[in-house]
């Protein structure tokens, strides 16, 4: 059972004006001190301003790895502190982008999370970073991190251990599905869900399956 660490638990610091149709964004996340309760829709004290594209049970928590933050820090020539990318969890020793869809993490004593999908960068993220062509650059690198659903509630805090407790056999990672989805991966995910091995986020995966089939002419 692999063990990693939770470097920071981040939740919204303040709502910021944004040029989206919502008018504000909750992407400004900052590390919290002490224990933070985890409920089915995410962290206590955290919100998502745009509920159409963010949040909900299948995107309750967003995790990003320190190794990827270090990569971007070198590329951008500046610090990328926890919460800078709007993540709730900054983790070390476990690669969120390389997580297999459906794998489970136990954090601390009782919280259990399940990896559901990759993060898709948006214009709000680009405005937050203030970097030209940020959406394209972030997409091209494929270091996107992972959304997770909450399987078991509880409390977590910085310094907790992160244990990978279950990895589905299908092998399709968050990064693979984001950067290079193909029919083989699609069939592997479909079969895994049919076998009860995983539960796919809907309707997002259904739409992605349909788009992939149209792309290959089936």
Total strands: 13
Described by its quaternary structure, the protein is: single chain
Query: What number is the mean pLDDT?
Result: 93
Tell me the distance between the termini: 40 Å
At CATH level 3, the topology is M1 Pyruvate Kinase, Domain 3
Keywords:
26% helix; seven-stranded mixed β-barrel; globular; three-stranded antiparallel beta sheet; M1 Pyruvate Kinase, Domain 3
Describe the 3D structure:
By secondary structure, this protein is α+β, with helices and mostly antiparallel strands. It has a single domain (2-179), classed as M1 Pyruvate Kinase, Domain 3. Helix content is 26%, strand content 28%. It contains 6 helices and 13 strands. The strands form 3 sheets. A 7-stranded mixed barrel has the order 1-8-7-11-10-9-13. Strands 6-5-12 form a 3-stranded antiparallel sheet, with no helix packed on it. Strands 2-3 form a two-stranded antiparallel sheet. α1 (66-76) links the parallel β7 (61-65) and β8. The protein is globular, with a radius of gyration of 17 Å. The mean pLDDT is 93.
């Amino acid at each position: 059972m692999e063990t990693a660490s939770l470097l920071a638990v981040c939740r919204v610091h303040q709502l910021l004006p944004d040029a989206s149709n919502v008018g504000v964004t909750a992407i400004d996340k900052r590390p919290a001190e002490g224990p933070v309760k985890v409920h089915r829709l995410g962290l206590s004290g955290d919100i998502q301003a745009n509920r159409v594209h963010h949040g909900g049970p299948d995107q309750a928590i967003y995790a990003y790895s320190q190794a990827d933050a270090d990569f971007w820090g070198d590329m951008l020539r500046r610090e990328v502190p926890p919460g800078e990318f709007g993540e709730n969890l900054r983790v070390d020793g476990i690669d969120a982008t390389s997580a297999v869809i459906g794998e489970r993490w136990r954090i601390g004593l009782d919280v259990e999370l399940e990896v559901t999908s990759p993060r898709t960068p948006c214009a709000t993220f680009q405005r937050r970073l203030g970097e030209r062509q940020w959406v394209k650059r972030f997409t091209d690198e494929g270091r996107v991190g992972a959304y997770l659903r909450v399987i078991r509630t509880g409390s977590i805090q910085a310094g907790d251990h992160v244990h990978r407790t279950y990895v589905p056999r299908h092998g399709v990672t968050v990064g693979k599905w984001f950067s290079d989805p193909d029919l083989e991966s699609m069939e592997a995910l479909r079969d895994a869900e049919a076998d009860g091995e995983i539960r796919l986020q809907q309707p997002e995966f259904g739409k992605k399956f349909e788009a992939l089939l149209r792309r290959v002419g089936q």
